[in-house]
Prior knowledge:
The structure is a single chain. Helices cover about 60% and strands about 10% of the residues. By secondary structure, the chain is of the alpha/beta class. Helix 4 links the parallel strand 4 (about 105-110) and strand 5 (about 135-140). Helix 5 (about 145-175) packs antiparallel against helix 11 (about 295-305). The longest helix has about 30 residues, at about 145-175. The relative contact order is 0.12. The mean pLDDT is about 75.
Amino acid sequence: MWHRVLAILVARNREFYRDSAGLGWNLVMPILMVVAFAFIFRGEPEDVLKIGVVTADGTLAGVESPLLEVRYVSFVPVADAAPGVVKVERHQLDLLVDLRGPPAYWVNLGSAKGHIAERLLLGAYREGGGADEPVRETVTGEALSYADWVLPGVLAMNIMFSSLWGVGWVIVRYRKNGVLRRLQATPLSPLEFLTAQILSRLLVVLGASLIVYLGASIFLDFPMRGSYAALVLVFAAGSLCLISLGLVVAARLRTEELADGILNLISWPMLLLSGVWFSMEGTSPAAQALSQAMPLTHMVDAARRVMIDGAGIVDVLPELALLTLLALALLTTAAWLFRWE
């Protein structure tokens, strides 16, 4: 008995290490994950407070203020005061300071960190010899829970995995098993085949997302302040874009192992850099710039604006246009690269 078990064990291990693609991804992916976290989070002391700073150009370049000299505080540049005030109401910012004219600030009366940030602000101005103390504005509002904040990202993450693997991995399996070779003998064109795959997966993804949304609504009292039509359009455009990306990956690959590795290489950076689990505010500038190049970022941002900030269709039109145009470009590329065998 044990001889047979040992024979199967040896054969299975040989099968594993002889599969260079699968072995490579098992070794490389953990290293890439560690490098990615080191790239996102700088090795500096953790900031205790987060203070928004409203400036004329939306950056902190060239801005001089005694407040900016306080250590262990993350200063977030804000182009407009209105959205910054909303973040103070929801405890996403501990304080908001306007430096465009006579200094003013907003503090949430129910925020413990806001009280500490206010004391630091006033102390910094007094130590810096400021002639006039900033004008104080107060707001109120309950903290936005992490579950409320993360839910739009979780829905988008589920769409990403279902879209990429639902077409990318499956079509490669079709090619390996000879299904595509048989379809090649029919009048079906590559564009028609890919379009059918997109429509099929789009129905599945949106249907599954609806079930997840309804299930979450049973257990969580999360906010939905915006338009349901806008939310559906955001998820539809994002799904279309990610499905098309999966088609590009599957256009010529022949093995599921290689497809699985490339799909992981695409999905994990998006998962880390698109703001699904944590805000990209305060991360390195390079990480923030790379984040904006990822379709999942725009889908997550738009979904959060709809669900949390109450945005409508008009408010998310830039994201809808970007995701749709990118989907068309990716679909065209997939049709051009596609091979039946």
